[in-house]
Every structure is written in C-alpha cells, then in structure tokens.
Amino acid sequence: MRRVTPYVLMLSATLAASCATSPTGRRQLDLVSDQQAAQAGNQSFQQIKKQTPVDNNPVDDSYAQCIVHALSVATGAPRGGGNWIVTVFKDPKTVNAFALPGGHVSVYTGIFSVAKTPGELAAVLGHEMGHVQAGHGAERMSDQTATALGVDLAAILTGIDQSSVQGQATMAALGAGAQVGVLLPFSRAQESEADKLGTQFMAEAGFDPHEALELWRNMMSMDQSGAPPAILSDHPADDTRLQALQAQMPDDVQRYQKAQAQGRHPDCKAPAEG
After folding, report:
1. pLDDT over threshold 70, residue 160
2. Are the beta carbons of 148 and 137 closer than 8 angstroms?
3. Nearest residue to 103 via CA among 119, 90, 87, 123
4. Who contacts 158 (Cβ-Cβ below 8 Å, separation ≥6)?
5. Does residue 85 contact residue 107 with C-beta atoms inside 8 Å?
C-alpha cells in the first residue's frame, strides 16, 4: 500500500486543484483548457466535413446563419474566443445539430422536419451553443482523463495483472462500471444544463421560450423504439426534461419580454417545406 500512496496523493491533489464552476453553478472538473478543447473541436469538424456534403442551398444557409446571429447577442463570442461559424450539412435523414468548442455550429437539413419554426430551431441551436459556453467539451475530456486514471489506480490497488486474460476481463468490467457510474451521469447533467442555458439564450435573443417545449414534444413524438433506458442514456428522460423547462419558464418569459421591449425581434425565414 505504501508504494501507491504517492500516486494516490498526486492524483487527489491534481483533481482537487482542477475544479471549476459552470455558468449555472455546477462544479466541473477542469483538466483540459478551453484552447485545447477548441483545437479538438476544430479537428473534429474538419473530419465531419470530409464525410458529409455541405448544403449549397443559400436559403437554408441564410436561415441557420440568421438564427445563430440572433442567439449570439445572448451568448456572446464562443468560450475561449473567436466567432460562431455556421455550416449546414445536406442530410435530410439526420435529425441533428451540434456546436463544438471553437465555435463551429453545424446543422443537418433533417432537423428542419422537427424544428419547424425559427423559435424551435433557436431552441435546438441555443442548447448546442449552451454546451460550448458551459465548457462541456473540455469537461468531458477532463472526465474521461480522470476516469482512465481512476481505473488504472483501481488496478494498482487491487493488484490486477493487466497482462493476464482474467486481468484484462476485470479491467474491461471496471471500464464499463466507470462508463455507467461516472461518464454518463455527468453527461446527463451537461444535457440538462444545456437545456437551461439554451432556453435562456433564445429568450434573451427575442424568441418565445415556449417554443422550446414544443420542440422537445416534437422530438418525443418521433419513433422511440430502441431507445436505451434513462440510466444508460446520456440525455435526461423526456418527462424530466419537460418538467425542468416548465419550471424555469416564468424566468425565461421575463427574459423574452425584456428582449422584446429592447427591440429584439429576430426575423429569420424558415425554408419552405419540400
């Protein structure tokens, strides 16, 4: 036991000194800088861009650009500096959008079939931009680093021989336990936080926050077959998500009314169906 004490102390000291606070007051592990996360985000975007065709429809592009520009009034510049860069990917079967550390905001054309109004798309993109502004990319990278260290430490403390077949099986079980017990719960917390920030951002940009509720109801109405149990999902359960959004709605409505009084009336034109 004495031989591993310095390692334990070093790991404990590193983790204790690497804590930060998110925009909502949640404690975060901070082993990765915003700049490192942005570099990883930019690299990921370039890989995605190689694999998915960009939508050359100027109407789609103008629409997404308009939504992000309106939201940026509330979000400010991407965390770590730079600008929001919007790309629309031509993939009508993929109902998705994402924002990466570094400021890349990507929209798949399939999302237009679910986020049917500017306000609903603002709810989606506000949520994704909320991930960036809360530093979730850097946090997730930090969590994974810490979890890997923890699994290695558990192997040392229990005397597991990682070169043996039994040792490898045990390490795999430890890794699965860490995934369910640590990484996924953190991700659910991040998703809930992005929901909260996203509706705040859309309200402050002048979009009616009630449309966030409609957006998530649209999502819920999609085919849910094959969805994993809530405990193994990295998203909050649907009912939990709606209840949380409804609970914060009075505050978001006040933000929306203030934005409207300040003249924030986004005029983003959704593409015509078909």
Report:
1. no
2. no
3. 87
4. none
5. no
Residue count (the chain) = 274
Tell me if residue 209 falls in helix, strand or coil. coil
pLDDT value for 183: 44
Count of alpha carbons within 13 angstroms of residue 270, beta-carbon side: 16
- What are the sequence ranges of the domains in the chain? 16-261
Element (H, E) at 43: helix 34-51
The answer to whether residues 100 and 132 touch, using CB atoms and an 8 Å cutoff, is yes
Contact 7, 153 (CB under 8 A): yes
Judge contact between 187 and 193, C-beta under 8 A: no
| Token output for 65 | 């650009």
Tokens of 243: 């209840």
What is the DSSP-derived secondary structure letter of residue 54? Answer: B
| CA 198/CA 212 separation, integer angstroms | 9
- Of residues 252 and 223, the one with the higher pLDDT is 252
What single-letter amino acid sits at 216? W
The CA distance from 37 to 101, in Å, is: 6
Catalytic (active-site) positions: 128
For residue range 8-37, list pLDDT tens digits in order.
Answer: 555 554 555 567 777 777 877 777 788 888
pLDDT of residue 191 exceeding 70: yes
Query: Which two structure tokens, joined as six digits, stand for 91?
Result: 């993939």
CA end-to-end distance (rounded Å), the chain: 67
Q: Tell which residue, 58, 74, 212, has the closest CA to residue 132.
A: 74
Enter the tokens of residue 37.
């996360």
Left, alpha or beta for 263 (phi > 0: left; psi -120 to 50: alpha)? left
- Strands 85-89, 19-21: parallel, antiparallel or unpaired by DSSP? unpaired
The model's confidence at residue 180, banded by pLDDT at 50, 70 and 90, is very low
